[in-house]
Design brief:
514 residues; mainly alpha; 22 helices
Length: 514
């Protein structure tokens, strides 16, 4: 399991790093003004759809269903089931994309009510409609990725999303070299989103042939049952993005607030993507197999997942909170993105980071429900978290602006994680195995030590981090991050949480297939 998680995490890290490059170029091109707000509001729609579909969400429902058919009726029946899912999902997503295109004014009014009556409203509608072809391609991409994951071919699905960011980076670089009016540049970038979806589908279709055969469209009882399980799972898996969309709807009334929130959340998505998506992608197959064994195997798999999730999320939380402003300055303060935008984005990032452990914990707990065929409980927790986020954002926006909205997202994430913990205990008595309990406390201690030393270092190096030359800031930041990782790793080793030899042996297990 560790090696599979490492593979998915590596691919996700590469995608997120390219995403940072994309967003840094986007910030330089559009800044944080009305055109950027309109583009990012439209992009959020596609971003959520991407999370709902391609990044581990449908995987949560399809993998257990595929293996149930495989175990009951054999390989041929499983391939036929996959073919029906591929054809039906592709048609359903195509129809949904067409309907959203027709109703786009209503959709944008719901996602960004503050735009109504402003020039940004029409800009957002135009951008969103040009992005919609991505949704049609996302249907078959989703199914192909889930089927490859079911067969433990994680490398291809982990690295194929890189094409999305590569296509956008090429388009933005071209627009920086050959400038256009900001509104025209945003439209050209929007059109590129659809092309990126086509590239990803082409790559998966070339390598994943024969997994789903024959391809058919059907809405029989089996398909209706599958969709009844898949849709709640998709909503649950996209919980962090749904909370951001709900918060952005509140923020849309304030100029540039959507842009600040978007860029801050992009930094949260690096650790959330590396840990959360990897956990959701790998844990579902692992826990599904464990449910066919005994309760001890299930507890062991779930415990290892929780340890890995919190062990990676806690140091990332402290790092993002303590280094928020220099990180935002280094990545985004170019061109049209000003120092004032940096300060506002950094404040939002600090509060968003408080919710990161809860987000990751949710990603680690949800597969325990998915593996048992229960997708409704995680969905209910996600909707409760969304309701808390929106309600808190409406209150906090009046007194604290975008900072209060970011705090509302962290609060909503904490409520969602707490609900899942309670439900897991009540529904199927999920408990940590004996080895996990002492290790979790040691992980927290190691993270606190690292955070304390990083706090001291940032104060001592404040003159180098605040307003210094960009190259100096980059070197100091890289040094602080490297030192923090080394300190944390040393703390885990000293406290007996992990040993280097065991980690290397886990990564070398020859069970990874591409």
């Amino acid at each position: 399991m560790i090696r599979h998680i490492f593979t998915v995490s590596t691919g996700t890290l590469a995608s997120r790093l390219l995403g940072f490059a994309r967003d840094a170029l986007m910030a330089a091109l559009l800044g944080a003004g009305p055109v950027a707000d309109a583009f990012l509001a439209a992009f959020q729609l596609i971003h959520v759809a991407r999370r709902l579909l391609t990044e581990g969400a449908l995987n949560a429902a399809l993998v257990p269903a595929y293996w149930r058919v495989h175990d009951r009726d054999g390989v041929v029946a499983a391939a036929a089931f996959a073919g029906r899912v591929l054809g039906t999902v592709s048609l359903a997503v195509f129809v949904a994309a067409a309907l959203v295109g027709v109703l786009m004014p209503v959709v944008i009014a719901a996602l960004a009510p503050g735009f109504v009556g402003q020039s940004t409203f029409l800009l957002a509608i135009g951008n969103a409609r040009l992005m919609l072809p991505y949704l049609a391609f996302a249907g078959p991409v989703t199914v192909m990725m889930a089927l490859l994951n079911a067969q433990h071919r994680f490398a291809l699905t982990a690295f194929s999303p890189l094409l999305f960011n590569i296509a956008l980076i090429v388009a933005i670089v071209a627009l920086l070299i050959y400038p256009r009016e900001p509104a025209v540049a945003a439209l050209l970038m929007s059109a590129t989103v659809g092309l990126a979806g086509l590239l990803q589908l082409t790559m998966l279709a070339m390598r994943g042939g024969g997994i789903a055969s024959p391809i058919r469209i059907t809405f029989d009882r089996e398909m209706r049952s599958f969709f009844g399980s898949a849709i709640p799972g998709m909503i649950a898996s996209a919980s962090p993005q749904l909370m951001v969309v709900g918060a952005a709807a509140v923020a849309s009334a304030s100029p540039a607030a959507i842009s600040w929130l978007y860029f801050a959340n992009r930094l949260i998505e690096l650790p959330l993507g590396i840990v959360g998506v990897a956990m959701g992608t790998v844990l579902v197959p692992e826990l599904t197999r464990a449910t066919r064994g005994n309760s001890a195997a299930f507890a062991q798999a779930a415990s290892r997942g929780l340890e890995l999730a919190l062990g990676l999320a806690l140091p990332a939380t402290f790092g993002l909170m303590l280094l928020s402003e220099p990180i935002v300055h280094l990545l985004f303060e170019h061109g049209a993105f000003t120092a004032a935008d940096t300060r506002a984005t950094a404040l939002a990032l600090t509060w968003l980071a408080l919710g990161l452990p809860a987000h990751v914990l949710t990603k680690a707990l949800s597969p325990a429900f998915f593996a048992r065929g229960d997708t409704k409980t995680p969905m209910q927790a996600a909707l409760a978290a969304l309701a808390v986020t929106v309600a808190a954002a409406l209150v906090l926006d009046r007194t604290h602006g975008v900072t209060g909205i970011a705090a509302a997202i962290a609060l909503g994430a904490s409520v969602g994680a707490l609900l899942l913990i309670i439900c897991a205990r009540v529904r199927f008595g999920l408990t940590l195995d004996p080895a996990a309990r002492p290790r979790l406390w040691r992980i927290v201690l190691a993270a606190l030590v690292m955070g304390g030393l990083l706090w001291l270092a940032t104060h001592g190096l404040a003159a180098w981090l605040d307003g210094g030359h960009r190259l100096i800031v980059a070197v100091v930041l890289a040094s602080l991050i490297a030192a923090s990782i080394a300190i944390y790793a040393a703390g885990l080793s000293i406290l007996g949480v992990v040993r280097l030899g065991e980690a290397i042996r886990a990564l070398r297990k020859p069970d990874l297939r591409t």
